[in-house]
Design goal:
alpha/beta; Rossmann fold; two-stranded parallel ribbon; 13 strands; about 40% helix; binds nicotinamide-adenine-dinucleotide; binds 2'deoxy-thymidine-5'-diphospho-alpha-D-glucose
Length: about 350
């Protein structure tokens, strides 16, 4: 991994990945972050790397074929890590077409560019030869497997059975990645991760939303009975797993990534209220999310056994640190909630 194209790097996980990669990896020569800066993109998340000579920000759309092709020509990437997506299930319920467009067509645009640039005989449809050391990594989600009952875990062999427009679009993208590997031999990996938490998460997702509302003394909206279960993983462990796959993954393989931390939503909400010293009277049980998946849980044995990855951050430590981060960064939260973060690009880059 020397010349990386990272998409969606101004979002939650992408920004954590870029910070970690540039901090820890001296083998990176160039890291280009291609991000459209939708409502979920915030350049303030990348302040720590802004002065790093190896880092370049490009404001643009992963669906823009001309732009993506030009970036491949200019920077000669050997690695693509594709985070960019519409990522929020609730939004997908009201605007499914955007999810299909960004998540499926965006992925296909990148696959086409990588294939055209990396294939040693690009005009030969039978050739499966690629430049040495290149890899396309698709950042996917456990949600493509649908929902679990009270027992069991998702393995890499679990059927693909998405239930929301978001997860269906991520599954569609995964299937295109698989097809480019099977048909054209493109060196790919797919990672499917459980729910992340940590710094820089947009406060529309459960943990930062509840933290923000609790701090402000506002009601905490818990969907349905609050007994839906998610498997929580600290974002730094997700990023470490992605690096392990880039470094040591067998191309063509899928790797599940989970924290082994199954928690009911209501227990997360109660924990947050306790840590902040707020009353449980703030909890409001509201109408359930349509098609709400009851339980997710990941079997991570493959990535542990084959690549030696295990999560380093316990749920308890991760939650303590995450709560502390949000409390220590009220300005970040305030600029997001007020919408001021949207002006950051023009203020910092002055239209360049
Ligand atoms: P996010 O919503 O915080 O960030 C998404 C980023 O993508 C934003 O910076 C946004 O501006 C950018 N983007 C959106 N459309 C774009 C486009 N057309 N072109 C270029 N950039 C665009 O998302 P996140 O939570 O950081 O998730 C990142 C990836 O990880 C997604 O693919 C998501 O499906 C996957 N994932 C997330 C989780 C989680 O718990 N958050 C878990 C598993 C997998
Ligand atoms: O499992 C991985 C997925 O995790 C990722 O692929 C998605 O990009 C990411 O958004 C996340 O999806 P979820 O739907 O699980 O995350 P969210 O934070 O939206 O919700 C977590 C749980 O909390 C879910 O059961 C719904 C519930 N919830 C959420 C919100 C925002 C509430 O009860 N109230 C709320 O207000």
């Amino acid at each position: 991994m020397k010349k990386l194209l990272v998409t969606g790097g101004a979002g939650f996980i992408g920004a954590n990945f870029i910070q970690k990669a540039l901090r820890e990896r001296s083998d990176i020569e160039r890291l280009v972050n291609l991000d459209l800066l939708t409502y979920a993109g915030n350049l303030e998340n990348l302040l720590p790397v802004r002065e790093d000579d190896r880092y370049t920000f490009v404001h643009g759309d992963v669906r823009d074929r001309a732009l993506v092709g030009a970036l491949f020509s200019r920077y000669d990437f050997d690695t693509v890590v594709h985070f960019a997506a519409e990522s929020h299930v609730d939004r997908s319920i009201v605007e499914p077409a955007l999810f299909l467009s960004t998540n499926v067509l965006g992925t296909q645009t990148l696959l086409d560019a990588a294939m055209a640039r990396w294939k040693t005989a690009p005009d030969d449809k039978y050739s499966r030869e690629y430049r040495e050391g290149v890899v396309y990594l698709q950042v996917s989600t456990d949600e493509v497997y649908g929902a679990l009952g009270e027992t069991g875990l998702f393995s890499e062999e679990s059927p693909i059975a998405p239930n929301s427009p978001y997860s269906a679009s991520k599954a569609g993208a995964d299937l295109m990645v698989r097809a480019y590997h099977m048909t054209y031999g493109l060196p790919v990996n797919i990672t499917r991760c459980s729910n992340n938490f940590g710094p820089y998460q947009f406060p529309e997702k459960l943990i930062p939303l509840m933290l923000h509302n609790a701090e402000a003394g506002r009601p905490l909206p818990v969907y349905g009975d609050g007994m839906q279960i998610r498997d929580w993983l600290h974002v730094s462990d997700h990023c470490a797993a992605i690096m392990a796959v880039l470094d040591r993954g067998v191309r063509g393989e899928v790797y599940n990534i989970g924290g082994g931390n199954e928690r009911a939503n209501i227990d997360i909400v109660r924990l947050i209220l306790k840590e902040l010293g707020k009353s449980e009277s703030l909890i409001r049980f509201v109408r359930d999310r349509p098609g709400h998946d009851r339980r997710y849980a990941i079997d991570s044995r493959k990535i542990t056994a084959e690549l030696g990855w295990t999560p380093a951050c316990s749920f308890e430590r991760g939650m303590r640190e995450t709560i502390a981060w949000y409390l220590d960064n009220p300005g970040w939260v305030q600029r997001v909630v007020s919408g001021e973060y949207m002006d950051y690009y023009s203020r910092m880059y002055g239209g360049k």
